[in-house]
Amino acid sequence: MESQIEKSDTNLVLKTSNCFVSAQQKSDSIDVFLDSFSKKFTPLDRFPKSLKSLLQDCMADDRCIVISQDEELAAVVGYSMKKKRFFKIELSSICKQYGSMRGFYYWSIIQLLHKKPTKRNTIFIEALAVSPNFRGEGLGRKLIYEVSKLAEQQKIKKIRLEVVNSNERALRMYQRCGFRVKSTQKIHLLTKFLGFSKVYLMEKNIR
User: Fold this and answer.
1) Rounded CA gap, 171 and 199, in Å?
2) Number of domains in the chain
């Protein structure tokens, strides 16, 4: 299903979560994620072609909502819900792309940063990103609104996400959307390597 987003001088189209995104949109989504989360992907970024291929293999194309203008992807959010993950990163998939020894090393780092959502009555936002050409237009808030609508439809009571302390702009946006910090994880050993020292778990209640 597609719906029009009312916005002056643009032709933005929302593709809702009950649709599978196209192969091109999936590829474009990975590019936007790589641009937005370059710090988190630092351990794998020495081999960009392998990284993109890995993420495409691990990404569920029916667990995301995208906003596009004409053929250009503007923003995307990926979420886990009801035991199905948006990114399901398996050790075997990483070893396939990087080899056994390097793959196991990368997989160990990913486990520190890529947590499994635990509660069945929760939507966990795994990634939300806006293309550089569309930042500052409120598309992040629009995607949060759409995920909140999905939670209401599915009778899910909470939405959770994680954000790092160096991303102050995203932290403020989530707070404006009703999220509150639930807990804080300190990343002492990897701070210099990744560029952030804390990961905030944020939660929003759905009435």
Assistant:
1) 11
2) 1
Question: Domain range for residue 76?
Answer: 2-205
pLDDT digits (tens, 9 = 90+) for 106-132: 777 666 656 655 567 899 999 999 999
- Give the count of beta carbons closer than 10 Å to the beta carbon of residue 202: 21
Query: Of the candidates 158, 154, 147, which has an alpha carbon nearest to the alpha carbon of residue 204?
Result: 158
26-61 confidence digits (pLDDT tens): 889 988 988 887 655 555 555 555 677 878 878 888
Instruction: For residue 98, give both structure tokens.
Output: 């990087």
pLDDT tens, position by position, 146-171: 999 999 999 999 999 999 888 899 99
C-alpha R_g of the chain: 17
pTM: 0.78
CATH code where residue 196 lies: 3.40.630.30
Unique residue bearing structure tokens 């819900």: 81
Handedness of CA 91, 107, 83, 32 (dihedral sign): negative
DSSP string, 11-26: -EEEE-TTSPPPHHHH
SS3 66: strand
